[in-house]
């Protein structure tokens, strides 16, 4: 792509992970070993939202105290390589809604590329750390919402300017499946 720029330098972007790029509309997301690479949208309608989650499920699956995420529509996300190198682990017993979440990992290095679930069909919950252009974390992919903020570790500060949501916030659905906003909750 002629209007693409090479990923901002970062010590880990080397070997098979050094071919990332971004432009004003899209960016690459690559696993640690480089075998899986995707192109993700940076604007609506493909980019649905950016958020930090402090729930137990995200803590466990990311092996961290929180997960930095963005949501993108399947229809606006594509693989450059490695779709066949993903393995999936699914379960419903850990999510607060009982909905099934499928976790797609690189078979080679174990990087969690995204989650998908019955809670939001046609949407991928992408992990922020897989984005090759790290400068996007301070701009287009900066989290706008924190969910399960009541479970944030005491030593973790809120994201400046991000809406603080209790529980699932914008993901809460009523019995008909329609989005139901809790007071003070915005859209992801």
From TrEMBL:
Entry annotated with the keyword Lyase: yes
Keywords associated with the record: Lyase, Metal-binding, Zinc
Biased composition (Basic and acidic residues): 172-188
Recorded GO MF terms: carbon-sulfur lyase activity; metal ion binding
Domain CENP-V/GFA: 27-145
SUPFAM superfamilies, per the entry: Mss4-like
Positions of region (Disordered): 1-21, 159-188
PROSITE patterns: CENP_V_GFA
Record-stated family: Belongs to the Gfa family.
Name this polypeptide is given: Mss4-like protein
